[in-house]
Amino acid sequence: MSQEAERSRLVGELLRMGAMAEAQLEAALDAVARGDDDAARRVVEADAGIDRLELETSHDVMRLATQGPLAGDLRGILAALRIASDIERIG
Fold first, then answer.
1. Closest Cα partner for 53 from 6, 5, 13, 7?
2. What pLDDT score was predicted for residue 80?
3. Which residues touch 65 (CB under 8 Å, ≥6 apart)?
4. Global confidence as pTM
């Protein structure tokens, strides 16, 4: 897979993580508002999906970083790693 395709896939993963975290946050707020313990438990259990995506993203970032990116590319790649970590924490 080309480096550009890898970067595109990485962006897609970050967008998917963001959407998942947004859905998790909305579900958590709804569970709290309704006082629904079962819904809250499901939100906590669903966090594993975001955790898996963060791990995949970390692996993708390391693979891209070892392919000899230019300095500007490396900044973008490392920013993706940080974004993935932040999204995982939100989720």
1. 13
2. 80
3. 74, 77, 78
4. 0.71
pLDDT tens string, the chain, 91 residues long: the values are 777 888 788 888 889 889 988 999 999 999 999 999 999 999 999 888 888 888 888 888 877 777 765 656 777 777 887 888 888 877 7
Task: Report CA torsion sign: 64, 87, 8, 48.
Answer: positive
Backbone angles phi, psi at 44, to 5 degrees: -65, -40
Q: How far, in Å, are 6, 67, 77, 79 from residue 73 at the CA level?
A: 12, 11, 6, 10
The total of other beta-carbon atoms located within 10 Å of residue 75's CB is 11
DSSP the chain: --HHHHHHHHHHHHHHHHHHHHHHHHHHHHHHHHT-HHHHHHHHHHHHHHHHHHHHHHHHHHHHHTT---HHHHHHHHHHHHHHHHHHHH-
